[in-house]
Amino acid sequence: MTVTVMIPTPLRAYAEKRDHVEVAAETVGEALDSLIARHGELRRHLYQDDGRLRSFVNVYVNDDDIRYLQKEATPVKDGDTVSIVPSIAGGFGG
Amino acid sequence: MNPVTTMGTKTAPVEAAPAVQLSKDEILRYSRHLIMPEVGMDGQLKLKQARVLMIGTGGLGAPLGLYLAAAGVGHLGLVDFDKVDFTNLQRQVTFGTGDVGRRKVEAAQERLSNLNPAIEIRVFETMLTSANALELFRDYDIIVDGTDNFPTRYLVNDACVLSGKINVYGSIFRFEGQATIFGAPGGPCYRCLYPEPPPPGLVPSCAEGGVLGVLPGIVGSIQAMETIKLILGAGEPLVGRLLLFDALMMKFRELKLRKNPDCPMCGEKRTITKLMDYQEFCGIRGEEAASTVSVPEITPNELKARLDRGDDLYILDVREPHEYQICQIGGHLIPLGDLPRRVSELDSSREIVAHCRSGKRSADAVAFLRQAGFKKIWNLKGGILAWSDEVDPRVPKY
Fold first, then answer.
1. A34 burial class (0-12, 13-18, 19+ CB within 10 angstroms)?
2. In chain B, which residues have their Cβ closer than 8 Å to the Cβ of A5?
3. Domain for residue B38, yes or no?
4. Which one of A41, A83, A92 has the shortest CB-CB distance to B148?
5. Are B98 and B167 found together in one domain?
């Protein structure tokens, strides 16, 4: 299955400035693994040391939060979009 | 001015509070609202009675304040502790060059009152804190979060949930924005979306990461639109939906946002029942201790004296190439992110002074290089900003 992984602005610095990559994967976890295999520095931004997804990074398959599906085991199908959505705080500051 | 009564059938009962009416001038001012059935006289009177508190009067707050004032939101509160500086003017369009140095709330109040003298604007020149948030929120129905940091975002969220206020949320980073409504009845809160903040340093702030000036204009306008829709009860509010905006691709996307049944703030078994220390919650103190205290430092004046003496120092600039183009102080450029794989370019037998813009990234660089075995290495305290202040004012600050 070929899925598109969307990389958010704050993490593009660790992914050769790409805004998305296409990867082959059966699950969300596999899609993220493929992404990290290409861009190793992303690992520490996505995962905690214990291997769990960081709690300020949400992952969606299409428009659904994987926390309410099967988390990283959520299956993906051809043409799905996996989005990484970290919290950003910017507003007005100097 | 001739008071004009509403002609519709949905006017408040006579025994209720004195009927709010529009003056002749106001009718003219709001005529483009009044002729739309979605607003009309009823809607405009709702706007006039609405009470909206804006947290932050900067990038997001600029379009927010301007549009809410222009639309006739009758009671606006502005919370900000900051003063206007030159770097604000690129995006904070409420302010003019002549406002630099003024208190933001004062300059914003003047501008918004000038735009619409018919509304009441109260200003609170204070930082929003756990001690004052609930008190400040009490007189308002809708809170609009235009802040720029995680501690305040969690504070606004928690205070909204505790006091039953709606939180119109927007945030931005470089050329990407997010917007949604938290704390609506039955809807999710910020902690449902993000239970915890990122550890300090992992996500750059606006000051470090930069922001395209128009972006807060767009996201703040979305917040203004949602606020007005909430007041009017019109359309489909952005509840349970997270709007993502990518300005470079000019794409809007929408994700489903669910109320987390296990949310510690708004879930059935909530564990948070009062406001907390949000600096501590976001680990801010830990960051300061870790990144700025533990590495050896050299002040700009000490560095200048040593360079003038002819000491053999290697100046390492860990900023990005586009920053190097803005200004430089004679350093060798190796961006912080490239340091691990380019460390072999450095000679550990030489004395090295690392610097960046403010001294923060270079502190990380010094910590990294010390771990890698470099012994004679210092961080330039305060970075280029301090160098410009203390040694060479010709070097531009950014």
1. middle
2. none
3. no
4. A92
5. yes
| Rounded Cα distance, B76 and B119, in Å | 8
pLDDT string in tens for chain B (398-residue length): 444 444 444 444 445 455 789 999 999 999 999 999 999 999 999 999 999 999 999 999 999 999 999 999 999 999 999 999 999 999 999 999 999 999 999 999 999 999 999 999 999 999 999 999 999 999 999 999 999 888 999 999 999 999 999 999 999 988 899 999 999 999 999 999 998 888 776 655 555 667 899 999 999 999 999 999 999 999 999 999 999 999 988 999 999 999 999 999 999 999 999 999 998 888 865 444 444 447 999 999 999 999 999 999 999 999 989 999 999 999 999 999 888 889 999 999 999 999 999 998 999 999 999 989 999 999 999 999 999 999 999 999 99
Burial class for B85, CB neighbours closer than 10 Å (0-12, 13-18, 19+): middle
Which pair of tokens denotes residue B244? 């993502």
Min Cα–Cα distance to chain A from B203, Å? 7
In this structure, the number of other CB atoms found within 10 A of the CB of residue B340 comes to 10
What is the CATH number for B113? Answer: 3.40.50.720
Decide which of 3.90.1150.10, 2.40.160.20, 3.40.50.720, 3.10.20.30 is the CATH code for A2-86: 3.10.20.30
- Same domain? For B69 and B84 the reply is yes
Say yes or no: B275 and B132 in one domain: yes
What DSSP state is assigned to residue A80? -
Say if the Cβ atoms of A90 and B170 lie within 8 Å. Answer: no
Q: What residue in A sits closest to B282 (Cα-Cα)? A: A56
Residue of A9, A19, A44, A88 to mutate, interface with B, max B Cβ within 10 Å: A88
Based on the domain organization, do B225 and B260 belong to the same domain? yes
Query: Per the structure, how many domains does chain B have?
Result: 2
Contacts of B131 (CB under 8 A, 6+ apart): none
Count interface pairs A-B at CB distance under 8 A. 126
Instruction: Choose among A14, A63, A93: nearest Cβ to B58.
Output: A93
What 3-state DSSP class applies to B378?
A: strand
Pairing relationship of beta strands B251-256 and B297-298 according to DSSP bridges: unpaired
CA of B235 vs chain A CAs: smallest distance (Å): 21
A50-70 in b/e burial notation, b at 16+ Cβ within 10 A? Answer: eeebbebbbbbbeeebbbeee
Query: How far apart are the two ends of chain B, measured CA to CA in Å?
Result: 50
Q: What is the pTM of this model?
A: 0.82
- Of the partner residues A65, A83, A88, the one whose CB lies closest to the CB of residue B171: A88
Q: Is A94 on the interface with B (CB under 8 A)?
A: yes
> What is the domain range of residue B298?
294-390
